[in-house]
Amino acid sequence: MNRKSLLWSFILIMMLVLAGCGGQTVGNTAGVTADQGKTTNTADSDNSQTNSASDTTTDQSSSEDNATTTPSITSNSDGSYVVKSAWGETTLPRSPQKIVTLHFSFTDEVVSLGITPVGIAGSYNAEVLGYLKDKVKDYTFVGNHQQPNLEVISSLKPDLIIANADVHGAIRDDLEKIAPTIALYTNGYGDMEQNFAVLGTLLDKDKEYEQVMSEFNSNIEQTHSKITGTPKVMVVKVLEKNFYIWMKTSYIATLLEKIGAEYSFDETKSSQQQTPGKIDVADVDLETLVQENPDYLVIYGAQADLDKWMGNSTFQTINAVKNNHVLVVNDEVWALGKGPLSGAEVMEEALPFFTK
């Protein structure tokens, strides 16, 4: 009896163990499936959060990148300033006296504040743009703005160098070894406004800055009020075989739009993209220019090239040419200056052009 009881007890225990193991297996399988389901859901949730975080990080990164291209200025307790530009933060003394400007726009802005830079970079054709010649006195020419002479700049012992962020990246280290350097963009009207505001404060010329900008904005409003409709215009440099069209984001295009014109060339909607090595222009052929077909055309270039295209029968099919809405201008004012002084001259020429 005892053996039988033990045998039956053993058999019963084994059955219970096997049943328990079988139940556990099912439970584990269900658990794994459920856990995998949860894991999958959690992964989706994590991915969603990760993507969201990634997007946020990307947005923040983009914002930070954009912020670095927007110049700003803050004052320190000791009276010095920290200027944030495209090349980072630069500490500068209040009202630096010896300034080198490496782009026409900066020269225009500084001169409009009543200051002559000690060093000025010019073009291949002129040390100082023609419209500024009677406004500057003692200065040193430091070479072409695309390849300024570093030795000459160094000899001037400047307190401040103002570089073009789009042009002077290759010589950044050299410039910063010579003197504190800030790098600014010179593309749209907004760049000019931001740069000019920073320079007004840095150079201790806040009153002069306010006066210049007040007059400039008043001029914009008055010009806008006198232009009826929305003339569609393009600004083009004519070359021997092709054309450079200034882009919609350029200084001249954004200024013309502020006075009431519509800049008809939009690079974002065109197959013609920015020309490599050229800032704010697209290199196009005659066929493309004819397709763009502006109602008003502002052009500049060598006289021989101007004469050639004005006599071209295909060029003459453009609305602006057919309707005698062509204005030949000085590139120093319309293409290079990019400042409040050149801007005032642009408006002076643009008003009668759009209202004749």
From TrEMBL:
Protein known as: Iron complex transport system substrate-binding protein
InterPro entries: ABC_transptr_periplasmic_BD, Bact_iron-sidero_bind
Record CDD domains: FhuD
Ranges of Low complexity composition bias in the record: 43-63
Domain of life: Bacteria
Compartments in which it is found: Cell envelope
Signal peptide range in chain numbering: 1-19
Main localisation: other
Organism: Paenibacillus tundrae
PANTHER family referenced in this protein's UniProt entry, alphabetically: IRON III DICITRATE-BINDING PERIPLASMIC PROTEIN, IRON(3+)-HYDROXAMATE-BINDING PROTEIN FHUD
UniProt record similarity statement: Belongs to the bacterial solute-binding protein 8 family.
Keyword Signal part of the UniProt annotation: yes
Region listing for Disordered, in residue ranges: 37-75
Keyword entries, A-Z: Signal, Transport
Positions of the Fe/B12 periplasmic-binding domain: 98-356
Biased composition (Polar residues): 64-75
